[in-house]
Amino acid sequence: MPQFDSNFFSSLIFWEIISFGILLWILYKYAFPPILETLEAREKKIRESIEQAEKNRAESEQRLQTYEAKLQEATQEAEGIVNEARDQAQRLLDENQQRIRTETDRLKTEASQEIDRERRKALQDIRKETADLALQVAEKILTRNLSDDDHRRFAQEAMDAVADHQTN
Amino acid sequence: MQDPLHAFELHQILPLSLFGLDISLNKATLVMWVVVALIIWFLLRAGSSRSLIPGKLQNLAEVLVDFIRGIIQDTMGTDGLRYFPLISTLFLFILFCNLLGLIPGSYTVTSQLVVTGVFAISVYILSLAIGFSIHGGKFLGILVPPGTPGWLLPLMIPIELISQLARPISLAVRLFANMTAGHVILGVLFGLTITGGFLIGWLPFSFTIALYGLEFGIAFIQAYIFTVLTCVYIGDAIHLH
Questions:
Q1: What backbone torsions phi and psi does residue A64 show, to the nearest 5 degrees?
Q2: Which residues of chain A neighbour B112 with C-beta distances below 8 Å?
Q3: Distance from first CA to last CA of chain A, Å, rounded?
Q4: Binary contact (A11, B40; C-beta < 8 A)
Q5: Chain A: residue whose CA lies nearest to B115
Q6: Residue A113 burial (CB count, 10 A)
Q7: Is there a contact between B32 and A27 if contact means CB atoms under 8 Å apart?
Q8: Integer Cα distance of A112 and A105 in angstroms
Q9: What are the domain boundaries of chain B?
Q10: How far apart are CA B158 and CA A72, in angstroms?
Q11: pLDDT: which is higher, A101 or B153
């Protein structure tokens, strides 16, 4: 094989070591640092962006929770207000009904008392008038001649009147 | 029919000598220079923009750098990253040598066993040096797999010694043989195409097209394997089992 021709070994080894050495030195000194720097800068940037995004997400979640809690609180408060209003309305209604009922009762009682009083007064008036009339009749009769029948009749009438008066 | 090994022959272009050492230029050394120039041009161009949103070239270089970093982190852990410049240079050098060798008329530097051998032996010596500098004499424990009973030691130590010595050899031969074999097959098929003529030549020619695609993949895979094994050997030296 031509590869085992030892005439070229020394020059191949020499130039291999020289070229590799030069290449390694130049790459190490000038080529790799900027590329590695760029890669690291990008990694850093990506990591920071992800961290920032994560932070933002956590923050917005927190805010959402706060809002939800507030919303729930507001809903409960509104429900409480509505309930209270309903209770108050019910109470007012009940009170009104109660008052009307008592008022009506009072008016009814007063009216019946009034009626009673008037009736009693009327009866008293009638009795008084009747007594007056009886006196007038007695006067007239006394001035005239009375027969036996008349006496009897008057006596009977007077007794009836007395009995009537007692039953009343 | 042309000799399929013809493509691996080297011819002196410019005779040079340094302190009696023959360092004459030939096709392989020129290709090495081209490889070095291409890698430097590629990475310096890619690194010059430093843009947070990369362009095409920058993106390619960053994918490559990230890929090699991934290999190092998977095999050696995070403390292996200090060897990143060495390992990525090794990967890029081998990859570009493999790929440039696929250009017709060019030369596959990695099809020379001396070239792959120098890399393999250097990597192996480096791993030994790292191991001894971190663990001192305890590094010899790499010859004893954990949990070995005492009476097995006379058997295990020679076996482990052989497996250790096989590491640089297999590393060198694997790359050299893969590159050589691929080009030999391509050479044979091209030879068949030419000798087959118009009537039957299309058959081996279509195979060369398919194999060319395969060789492209092998160029990547072999560079990758060489790099991964380098990482594994150095990682073994760092972590010791």
A1: -60, -45
A2: 3, 8, 12
A3: 166
A4: no
A5: A13
A6: 10
A7: no
A8: 11
A9: 4-239
A10: 80
A11: A101
B87-98 residue pLDDT tens? 999 999 999 999
Tens digit of each residue's pLDDT (9 = 90 or more) over B55-102: 788 888 888 888 999 999 988 888 888 889 999 999 999 999 999 988
At position A80, the amino acid (one-letter code) is G
DSSP B187: H
Residue B239 phi/psi, 5-degree rounding, is -95, -20
Q: What is the pLDDT of residue B2?
A: 64
Six-digit token pair at A164? 């009537």
Q: B1: pLDDT confidence band, cut at 50, 70 and 90?
A: low
Mean pLDDT across the stretch B14-29? Answer: 81
Residue B216, burial from CB neighbour count under 10 angstroms (0-12, 13-18, 19+): middle
Highest mean pLDDT among A110-119, B7-16, B40-49, B71-80: A110-119
CA distance B109 to B28: 6
Q: Dig out the tokens for B189 from the structure.
A: 């098929």
- DSSP label at A29? I
The answer on pLDDT for A56 being more than 80 is yes
CA distance A79 to B131: 79
pLDDT above 60 for A128: yes
Decide: B215 and B182 in contact? Cβ < 8 Å. yes
Partner-chain residue, chosen from A19, A37, A39, that has the shortest CB–CB distance to B32:
A19
Mean pLDDT, all residues of chain A: 89
Whole-angstrom distance, CA of residue A71 vs CA of residue A64 = 10
Nearest residue of chain A to residue B86 (CA atoms):
A24
